[in-house]
Amino acid sequence: MLKGKTVVLAVSGSIAAYKIANLARMLKKLHCNVTVMMTQNATNFINPITFETITGNKCLVDTFDRNFQYSVEHVALAKQADVVLLAPASANVIGKIAYGIADDMLTTTIMACPCKKIVAPAMNHNMYHNPIVQENIEKLRRYDYEIVAPDSGMLANGDMGDGRMPEEGVLLEYILKEIAFEKDLAGKKVLVTAGATREAIDPVRFITNHSSGKMGIALAKAAMLRGAEVTLVAAHTDVAYPKFVKTITVISAEDMFNAVTENMAEQDIIIKAAAVSDYTPVSVADSKLKKKDGDMTIELKRTKDILKYLGENKKGSQFICGFSMETDNVIENSKAKLEKKNCDMICANSLRTAGAGFGTDTNVLTVITKDKEVAFELMSKQELAHKILDEIMAK
Predict the structure, then answer these.
(1) Which domains does the chain have, with CATH numbers?
(2) CA-CA distance, 105 to 109, in Å (whole number)?
(3) Is the confidence at residue 287, as pLDDT, over 50?
(4) Residue 48 has pLDDT above 70, yes or no
(5) 8 A C-beta contact, residue 218 and residue 379
(6) Which residues are identified as catalytic?
(7) Which of 185, 196, 271, 339 could connect to 226 by a Cys-Cys bridge, CB 3.0–4.6 Å?
(8) Residue from 99, 140, 143 nearest 120 by CA
(9) Does the model's pTM come out above 0.85?
(10) What does pLDDT average to over the chain?
């Protein structure tokens, strides 16, 4: 995913420095070129040899070290970098950068870097909330440094509060957002629905389906990584919501319909990937549940057709994409759905195809528009999400 990309990890003096070794390993697994810089104080918490072993690159500490690859090391590295992550960022280093002080390899290189710079503060709770530190953080933010909010919990000295550096996976997500994909969706607003709606029968039971929400969430994350401003309308899902996405949680089909229609006007692309329950009890409040000889009969009515409403109420150049899950006559039924719902695209798949359908991490589908069909073989839902977005962007 990150082949050909260079990430500079800048490590300052904090006990959280040990986490960066695992982050470096995670980046290398994605085929990224990683270089680590450390302040002299940081070497008291973790040895530079650790980073050199993981990354295969010299760990840079001393500005005047003559054993380096480039003629002017901090300038050459600054030109190479696609993104710089300063983590952990101590109060001392934050203050230096905020006031333009470049007195070591780390601060000098950061000053010379034209690329995006991400800062993850890590320090004692009281130090973090010191108004001087907060002012320095705000100053960096004004100069387009991205600030990663610290976590709350037990700190190194046993105190409770915020100031902890987030886990490595969170820091990786910030890096991926910045450099994993070209930003061909920048300036676009995308709404994605995901998950299985639930229709209450009574306070205990409900009607639902087997949707895990994995495909919809993969689409929301892919659109975000490609620069879109994404709104996710999520019913019940088996996977976590992606970061950097506005998420509206819903329960019923009525909830989802309302959330989608309230937000549709400002969207450029709407992708309905949720598996909405087609029926709901007529009236739970009135308990219209008929029991006879121990059996229960539930009076049902159809839920609102979200995709049909979107197709009938498209705004200007909006692009509407729906999904069609079939068991027979997949292409024919999906083409009919494309026409009936007035969509621009239908993603059709079959419950009978191995590796496709509900709950899987993979999918097999055919993208259908008015003028063509594109079939995709078995692949991960994350990969397929980008294929679907490629087809949308090609229209």
Answers:
(1) 6-179 (3.40.50.1950), 189-394 (3.40.50.10300)
(2) 6
(3) no
(4) yes
(5) no
(6) 209
(7) 185
(8) 140
(9) yes
(10) 91
